[in-house]
Specification:
Layout lengths: L6 E6 L1 E3 L8 H13 L6 E3 L8 E2 L3 E2 L5 H5 L4 E3 L5 E5 L2 E5 L6 H25 L7 E3 L12 E8 L4 H14 L1 H4 L3 E2 L13 E2 L7 E6 L6 E5 L11 E6 L8 H19 L13 H9 L7 E3 L5 E3 H18 L8 H20 L9 H16 L6 H9 L9 H4 L8 H7 L9 H10 L4 E5 L2 E4 L7 E4 L8 H10 L3 H9 L1
Parallel strand pairs: 3-18, 13-14
Antiparallel strand pairs: 1-8, 1-10, 2-9, 3-6, 4-5, 6-7, 7-8, 10-15, 11-12, 16-17, 18-19, 19-20
């Protein structure tokens, strides 16, 4: 039986320092995040004690090369909205708090964009005469480097990982036709811009394996990192590294919503008779991305061929049956699940009929339409530097500079909702307890991470409060308690009782 889908997004942002092409990206990322943290009344650092990125879902562990030691020396903070804001290697990253519904998770991803905007303003305020830092929500620098937008989903530990792989790979290979961010050209070895003038996904070029542990080299379609940040006997955190960073709010929501439904179907045995196994998942992922006409077919293990959209239709049909047979509240309240299925169907119908009809909601279609019109107007070829600049400008997080914002695409959230989500945690998960404690007792929290808070109560030893269940620590469970207590001592006594 499917379990509630706690979920969230980790977004690594691209940065540039205009006029300083040789700027150190780690230094620039640290400067950017400090520009935001300087606007806060205090900061709480990240606790690395439970980090285990080398654990593999296939039953073994590997040495990850000491990355955690490096990260402990970089800027790394926990925010009152329950999120983590830090430097991940050479990129600023916003890891959104755990959320209970796709809509909520999409909202907190938008909050990450607003935090980046405030960080840019903070840098300018701290050093008005210094260099600017510009942030882009994209996935590659056109120099062969890709940075991620990772999704995380809570799953039942009892579901065999091999079953997850078999039933999820075809969905992941083909879902890009709905939620790809679009890209001019290709960065795959040996592929020229004449071969691929425009493609659907920004990330597809960078994947080399079907299943694996890596996230920066030999990237796999299914990532096997087994780091649940919760009770490992009950839960698995599926770490999804395949997706693009979406500017479209609706595309982000659709990505989270459809994937949550598919994972719930896997847990409920709804896909056991799907009958789709792709022979060459990595090659198919790229070939589907390289064809905006959506005519490319994938070859199945039984010899049949299917277009990507036909694969998605099969998953959608199973989703309809699943919704009629099972408790859909594991994904979200019934009205939201109904909306997810309706949007999924509408998008597939639009892609069949005329992809350009979806330019108001899908990133790759919006960008494709923009790029084609620009090239036709100015008589340009895809390899022209001005076309590449247009591509990048689509992803600028500054509203006044973002081409995506100028297209007036459909939005899900009001500006005031996004503003509130930068400081207030979601009420539906343990992120509420984390965020509220950080807001109430900022000077008495020594460190925090996803599954614990460490309180400094003065002369006594530090006190660790575990939070191993993502569905506890919600406003319903601890809201009244947090209103009653006036000190950390009172809070710890009440929790102990």
């Amino acid at each position: 039986m499917a379990i509630p889908k706690v979920l969230g997004i980790e977004t690594e942002y691209g940065i540039s320092v205009p006029g300083m092409p040789e700027a150190n990206p780690i230094t620039a990322s640290s400067t950017l995040i400090n520009g935001y943290l300087a606007q806060l009344s205090g900061r709480t650092g990240w606790d690395f004690v439970d980090e285990s990125p080398g654990h593999d879902a296939r039953g073994f562990s590997v040495d990850t090369g000491g990355n955690i030691e490096l990260e402990t020396h970089l800027v790394n903070a926990v925010l009152t909205n329950g999120a983590r804001l830090y430097v991940d290697h050479a990129h600023p990253e916003h890891s959104a708090p755990e959320c209970r519904t796709p809509r909520e998770a999409a909202l907190y991803d938008c909050a990450g964009e607003e935090i980046m905007r405030r960080a840019m303003a903070g840098v300018a305020a701290l050093n008005p005469a210094g260099p600017r830092i510009v942030v882009y929500k994209n996935n590659s620098d056109r120099k062969g480097n890709s940075y991620g937008c990772h999704e995380n989903y809570l799953m039942d530990r009892q579901v065999p990982f091999s079953k997850i792989v078999a039933e999820l790979v075809p969905f992941f290979v083909t879902r890009q036709i709905m939620v790809g961010a679009g890209k001019v050209g290709s960065e795959a070895p040996g592929v020229s811009i004449r071969d691929v003038p425009f493609q659907i996904s920004q990330r597809a070029d960078f994947f080399e394996e079907e299943v694996g542990l890596e996230t920066t080299l030999k990237r796999p379609i299914i990532n096997t990192r087994d780091e649940p940040h919760s009770d490992s006997q009950r839960y698995r955190r599926l770490h999804v590294i395949l997706g693009d960073a979406n500017m479209s709010e609706l595309a982000t929501w659709l990505k989270l919503g459809t994937t949550s439904v598919v994972l719930s179907m896997i847990e409920d045995e709804e896909l056991s008779e799907l009958g789709i196994s792709i022979v060459d998942p990595v090659g198919s992922l790229r070939r589907v991305s390289w064809d905006p006409s959506l005519k490319t077919v994938v070859t199945l293990a039984d010899g049949r061929t299917m277009r990507a959209i036909e694969v998605q239709w099969r998953y959608f049909e199973h989703a309809q049956r699943w919704a009629a047979r099972h408790d859909t509240s594991v994904v979200a309240p019934e009205p939201e699940v109904r909306s997810i299925l309706e949007e999924w169907e509408a998008v597939l119908e639009g892609l069949e009929r005329d992809p350009l009809s979806l330019a108001d909601r899908l990133d790759w279609v919006a960008k494709w339409s923009l790029v084609r019109a620009f090239m036709e107007r100015h008589g340009l070829e895809p390899g022209d530097a001005r076309v590449a600049a247009l591509d990048l400008q689509y992803h600028d997080v500054r509203p006044e500079r973002s081409l995506q914002r100028r297209l007036r695409m459909r939005r899900l959230f009001r500006d005031d909702e996004v503003q509130e989500a930068t400081t207030v945690p979601p009420a539906s998960t343990r992120a509420y307890f984390r965020g509220q404690c950080l807001a109430r007792f900022p000077t008495q929290i020594a460190a925090a991470n996803w599954d614990s808070l460490i309180f400094d109560v003065g002369s006594d030893p530090l006190r660790r409060v575990p939070m191993m269940d993502p569905l506890r620590g919600t406003k319903d469970l601890v809201g009244d308690l947090l209103l009653r207590v006036h000190s950390v001592d009172e809070l710890l006594d009440a929790l102990g009782a």
